[in-house]
Amino acid sequence: AMAAAAAGAFSLREVLEAFKRCVTEQREVLLEPYLSGWRGLIRFLQSLGTVFSFISKDAVAKVSLLERHCGGEQGQQYVSLQSMVRHELAPGLAALRARSDSGCRTVLRLHRALRWLQLFLQGLRSGDSRTSVLCTDAYNASLAAYHPWVVRKAATVAFCALPTRDAFLEIMNVGPREEAVAVLGEAIPYIDDVYSITQELFAQHKLLDLP
């Protein structure tokens, strides 16, 4: 499995492991495993062809911006989402709102996309309907609100070309279908946890609508 991961292939286990490492005992969300989880999710999106490139390209840009923050002079302030929020809010909310390259704004964009993936993966796991329907429902309940009409229209058309649920479970790269469903079942609660901690943190500091 490691060889496949090294070759840049997607494996759901990798995403599971990353999100598992995200949350500390103090309920802080560590940025390094968060970005690691996202790199896996991006590979997942890319393995589906161009359908999701409007989301994956954006996610790639956001992840590399955050990597720059983490690797920069202020890197120690970007260990967790909580430390990042404290650091970036120190000059005040107005100053933070004026910045287009802040970690908070960047995480918020990933956070919204994570909601869509979370809902879509949940749908894939229960597998009641066609993947195009699952994906569209997940999108309409999350990201659609933040996209202009043109993007929404293009997305909904693109989702119609999605492979079947079986093909998706195969893309997960964790063995037979039952195994993929089991690993999804294991991964989703960790993703949910990271999502809800982030949502609460950003709501508390009035960061959910950063421009």
Automatic annotation (TrEMBL):
Keyword annotations from UniProtKB, A to Z: Cell membrane, Cytoplasm, Endosome, Golgi apparatus, Lipid transport, Lipid-binding, Membrane, Nucleus, Transport
GO cellular component, one term: plasma membrane
Ranges where the Glycolipid transfer protein domain occurs: 30-173
One Pfam family here: GLTP
GO molecular function, one term: ceramide 1-phosphate transfer activity
Record's subcellular location: Cell membrane; Cytoplasm, Cytosol; Endosome membrane; Golgi apparatus, trans-Golgi network membrane
GO annotation (BP), single: negative regulation of interleukin-1 beta production
Membrane topology: Peripheral membrane protein
Catalytically driven reaction(s): N-(hexadecanoyl)-sphing-4-enine-1-phosphate(in) = N-(hexadecanoyl)-sphing-4-enine-1-phosphate(out); N-(9Z-octadecenoyl)-sphing-4-enine-1-phosphate(in) = N-(9Z-octadecenoyl)-sphing-4-enine-1-phosphate(out)
Main location class: membrane
Recorded family membership: Belongs to the GLTP family.
Name of protein: Ceramide-1-phosphate transfer protein
Originating species: Platysteira castanea
